[in-house]
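Re: the 176-residue chain
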Amino acid sequence: MTATQAEVDFHTGRGGLFFLLNVLNHPGLRAWRGTLHEPHAGWRELVRLALRLELAPDAPLTGFLAEACALEGEQDPVAKLAGLAKLPARADPVAVDRAVLRHVGDAALRALRAERPARVRASPSHVDVHLRLAEVDLELRRGGLDLDPGWLPWLGRVVRFHYDRSDAADRGGSSP
């Protein structure tokens, strides 16, 4: 059973990588998303975009993404994701990169690259990213990157961001 079929719960220092889902869900990329028909294509394009933006995932996130992308083989997850970046994309990445720069901007791009500790809980239908309330970033907020994207048919999941008080992100739930 892979991570996409079972519940997973892990901590990552790169929780902000999930904000890229809002970029990929931008209305200007509707036609591009229409090309994502193969299983796991949404996850694969997320990884490709993250790698192009130099948002390298840490070990726990790398393992999750390698499973979500259904990358098989005996090699370690880092090598799997690096290999994915070399495979042909389903659509022209230049259109995606232009939309990212237009939608995100330099300040938000710098904020995306910052380390952002999070607890990620994923099931076959949902991805919940728990972040610390103290980690709210105005540049990300202005760009709408930390808003709940909700149901993403091209990813096959409901994605929600939770800002928890104190270290609740480390504990995996919200504080009272």
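The mean pLDDT is 81.
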